Sequence to fold (90 residues):
Amino acid sequence: MKTCKRCKVALPELDLTEETRKQLSELILDNQKLQGVKFLMGTGVTHENAKIIMDHMITQKGVCGRCDYNFEGVGPFDCPDCGAFNYNIL
Ligand SMILES: [Zn+2]
Ligand SMILES: [Zn+2]
Fold:
């Protein structure tokens, strides 16, 4: 399993449909992290994994969720600056 270089936690697989991805990105852009955790649990993700996922979620397009590193492209990435893994669903 992939781990985050920054906090060494094991990263759960994030498997979203196009529809659930859209719904979750709306919560993220709206800064509703707790709702995001609940939303993921509603798709069958455990509470622990949902928290890990939301802790590693970018909160604005093209910016690392842990530092201000700017990046291009789509899909998950490891930040070259702080080492944090980012689920990039926006
Ligand atoms: Zn981490
Ligand atoms: Zn970073």
Q: What stands out?
A: Strands lie at 77-78, 85-86. The chain has a mean pLDDT of 95.
